[in-house]
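Input record (one chain):
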Amino acid sequence: MIVSARALTKQFGRVRAVDDLTFELPAGRVTGFLGPNGAGKTTTLRMLLGLVEPTAGEALIGDRRYVDLPKPRRAVGAVLEATGYHPGRRGRDHLRILAGLAGASRDRVDHVFDQVGLLDVADRRVGGYSLGMRQRLGLAAALLGDPEVLILDEPANGLDPEGIAWLRSLLRSLAGEGRTILVSSHVLSEVAQTVDHVVIINRGQLRFAGPLRALERGAVTVRTPRPEQLRANLVSRGYEATTSDASTLVVHGATAAQVGHVAATERIELHALTDSGASLEEAFLSLTSPDDRSAPAAITAEGLRA
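The corresponding structure, as predicted from the sequence alone:
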């Protein structure tokens, strides 16, 4: 099931938390949802889940808003925070209550406990669970309805290295079954090992959407008031150059120094020149740099021809 945002916008008073955000998440993939603190990630997730009403645009699960899904808990599982439980209630009872809301069987409760590695503590009171165990419990709750879509906010929080490796394996296995999985995280090293697809936002605006390999294979982004002239000169020299928007080019097969040399030779003014493809971390820092106060130009999968 494809998850998408179309011109999604949310205004809180004078603050525009999400600004004309458009992206599409492919089914059968784990997508990393990245951005610095305050970028608008949580607000976007809440709009996808129908918890916040957009000021403009749409957040769609398949081709419907979350609130219009006939059985939303069967279609979408979500973990936004490891709370929402009564500390005196046993883990099994907590999930049985949620199973009733989701229309899931009691047998499903034991299945998801086993799936997240908590079956041996299912009858322990949740107040005695560690943070990592509560994270697993939240994931078990999200899986109760056997959903096609999983939306997870910092799911590795509180997990030890073994737990993080387990989570990585589980998410990739679930994606292999054709599910659409969106993971918001600050741990870039772990994201790089887990996801297939990446959406990066900054100041509420899209900065990149596309396969992870597109960021890591090496791409030079360049902003110029004369993009078509620069593109023609780069192509004539054997480089691959495509326009990302009215002022931005994405170039493959050339280093930033080579692109700069072509621009200087042709006397073409440049406003920005970045080699953003060495690693996910370097690409992320480049795309979300606080020093770049201009309106960000989104780089898409199409722009990178991934």
